[in-house]
Amino acid sequence: ALPPLLMSSFTENSPVPFTVTYCANCDGGAQELGAASEAIQRAFPNAVIANKQLQSYPIEVVVYYNGHALWRSHQRNLFRKYAKNRTASQAEIVAAVSKLLDDEYAASLSASGASL
Length: 116
Known about the structure:
Structural class: alpha+beta
Largest sheet: 4 strands, mixed
Helix content: 40-55%
Strand order of the largest sheet: 2-1-3-4
């Protein structure tokens, strides 16, 4: 669970912090969107995630936090048929989101004058 100090910055009235962009190539990209969203929610179970389907190249998935790219990879790395790549990519997303949350928490403590 997220510490209350950080959790308070993610309310229903807040803008959606996470966005996943993906390409609607041959099959629409739903499995890749799902894989990326699942990984975000492993690190941040209450995450609110928007998605944006693109019709352009390169065929990639990008995870954004407040407009800044946290993770980017070729979309095939999230295909179910490439299980090793999918597992590794999801682990990278979890690590990126976890680091972000750690950094955000440290920054919120610093701003409040508290310490770790």
